[in-house]
Amino acid sequence: MPLHEYQQKRNFKKTSEPKGTKRKSKEHALMFVIQEHHASHLHYDLRLEWEGVLKSWAIPKGPSLDPNTKRLAVEVEDHPLSYGSFEGVIPENQYGAGEVIIWDTGTWIPTTDPAVGFKKGHLQFDLKGKKLKGRWDLIRTHFAGRKNQWLLIKQKDDFVKPETSPPKKKSSKKSEKIPVSSTRTGHSKNSKLKASQFISPELAQLANIPPLGDNWIHEIKFDGYRMQAHINRGKAVLLTRTGLDWSNRFPSLIESLKSLSVDEAVLDGEVVWLDSTGRSDFQLLQNALKSQQTAPLIYYAFDLLSYSTQDTRDLELSERKKRLKMILKKAAKNIRYSEELRGSGQELLKIACQHKLEGIVSKNIESTYVSNRNPNWIKTKCTHQQEFVIGGYTKGSGARSSLGALLLGVYKKNQLHYVGKVGTGFTQKSLLEVLKTLAPLEQRKSPFQKKSPHEHRVHWLKPLWSAEIIFANWTHDGHLRAPVFNGLREDKPTKEITVEEPLSAKELESVTITNPDKILFPKEKITKLEVANYYHKISKEILPYLRNRPLSLLRCPEGVLKSCFFQKHIPTPLPATLREIPIAEKSGVKNYIGLQNPLGLTTLVQMGAFEIHCWNSVAESVENPDQIVIDFDPGPHVPWHQVVEAAFDLKKMLEQLKIKSFVKLSGGKGLHVHIPVRPVYSWEQIKAFSAALAKELEISRPDRYIFKMTKNLRAKKIFIDYFRNTRGATAVAPYSLRARPQSAVAMPLEWSQLKKTTSADEFSLTRALAYLAKRKKDPWSEFQNSHQRIKILDDSLKLGSKSFRRKIDTASTRTR
């Protein structure tokens, strides 16, 4: 009996695996399947249909697409054909206990006689699956007399993907400790997550309409508390969206999470209270928490971030949801899977609004999990609803004498702006509870940037609490129309609360990444999607240095090893996520590229424009630079430590002039020193001053430095490039990727860090993400507010051009 061994090993009363029987051979395409098997050791099972059964091999490390990598494949017992569609959890104490997931499936086509191949121990075949394609060999080894050991080898064809490691280079001890992450989203390949390790959540971008297309799924938007569930060997915790442990608030949910049939997992979801009609109700949820009557609460899980200690964030959403659904099959009634709908998001939104729900969330089914707000998740609401910062409250009258209305605000450029007050939506009980919560925060001074119009009988508060508000719309002067209080929130830092700007339909269309698997950096196999994810992840860091500046872009649509070209004027047609910045030139007004938000970054990646250069001035005052950039460009054979010393020589010179400077690795060969200035000087003045600095450096060390562009004079010297401070010149933006054979990031540093660096391209894409994830302080945190005046320029503002240049040249000699 061909399946006797298979059936002998299993108790089909306890396992859901198919018992199966051998089937007669039929004329049809032969099936293959590879199943990911989380048994005592993770491995992959290859199964090939032959003569009515599935011939099977266990591959410990999984198949490799590199012809130079041979994978051990241990032959095991034949399985029934019905096993080819099996997915599920094999119970503990059963043979092969653990989860089984279909990793790939399709058809296999023998290129030689399989009967002869099985007998001789050499099969040759083509695979046509979703992940595995092309020609393969399966060869029996007879290693140490063990006839069940084979080797699975990929043959050279169009589907080869070599397994190459990034070239090793010398680095400081500090940099060697930085973990190398996967190039997809910054998560380590096969990385293991600690059970209590908080993961910053992925957040949805607001839009006016749901996105269209088959690659989107749509879920009901809950009105509750976002919670991350961490399960570890019979223990469970629930963490808020900022990582606070709220486990003791939800004892019944914790008990149900502990009972899930999984050793270790991290789930993403939301805790809600459902009213009698099945709608989530935030105020009732708050009431339950305050009264500690939390037994009726429900946890809706909608994503899986880790499973069996394996980081799953780099899997596509469709795969993560598939595994999540399996985990929750036998969950308690208060732990539920958040169902999704494929098809018309507009139809689901219409139904949601008819039933007075908050709205829907649409998700790109092919996207990986990225810990920031990005357009792979889109939220569309039935009503206007968001959090607002509470900056004070007014006294009421009559029965409402304790509290009349809350004064609300949002943050703009780190300043709290007043947007109106809310006095409806309270019950007598909630009024007392709100007052009790806010009273200890009272202060004398208004926290708003401008005094609110409600000065009379106001109690000002430290802006540490926020309220969820439902409102009709915004007025023309930026105030809330018909706001209604929907509860206090304590799960979001108030500093993060800004006005939510919805995406338009045109913007939604323009943020799609086409050909996401296109390789842009071949040496590291970094894809277009991975580059887009990088910019999503660092958008908060890079946008302050790009916003409202004319940009020049190095575009490499086919990758860094193919032809690349610079573009400074706008493409036609201009995507909705970019803006025009008109600038007068000799030939007339030209429109330059500008951007405002993370969607613009996504658009640039879609254009293949992932190396970003910017002007030293902003659109509002384009003729008055707000920074100076000095580029230290080493000639051949100049050691790195001399480049570092050059930057410190300039720093010392600037300190003598009482000017603060900031340094960054260029990501290319050298260093950039940035000097923020108040935008009151002309291009001519800034260029003359930067030229004087460069000249002074050359005078101080003529054996090392040169400030003239003549190439034949620059051998073994460092060119002090001050020409980036002329009108129309650009420098690579801080945090920008460089379009080089090896990925590199233009990384801002503390001056104290600079001496520990080993090269200008020390931070690859993956190292940059790992470093930024661990970085505790922004080394350029003072840059945006350092509106420095330069005394020597101030003294010269009233002089004529020639007198000005003489004064600059004279001053440069005095700094020696």
Structure, explained:
It contains 18 helices and 45 strands. With 816 residues, the protein is of the alpha+beta class. The chain has five domains: 4-154, no CATH class; 203-381, DNA ligase/mRNA capping enzyme (D-amino Acid Aminotransferase, Chain A, domain 1, 2-Layer Sandwich), CATH 3.30.470.30; 390-496, Beta Barrel (OB fold (Dihydrolipoamide Acetyltransferase, E2P)), CATH 2.40.50; 521-619, no CATH class; 627-732 and 786-802, Alpha-Beta Plaits (2-Layer Sandwich). The strands form ten sheets. Strands 1-2-3-4-9-8-7-6 form an eight-stranded antiparallel beta barrel. Strands 21, 22, 23, 24, 25, 26 and 29 form a seven-stranded antiparallel beta sheet that branches. Strands 12, 13, 14, 15, 16 and 17 form a six-stranded mixed beta sheet that branches. A hairpin with an 8-residue loop joins strand 19 (359-364) and strand 20. Helix 10 runs antiparallel to helix 12 (598-606). The longest helix is centred in the last third of the chain and has 18 residues, at 683-700. The relative contact order is 0.07. Mean pLDDT is 86; it is low at 164-193 and 811-816.
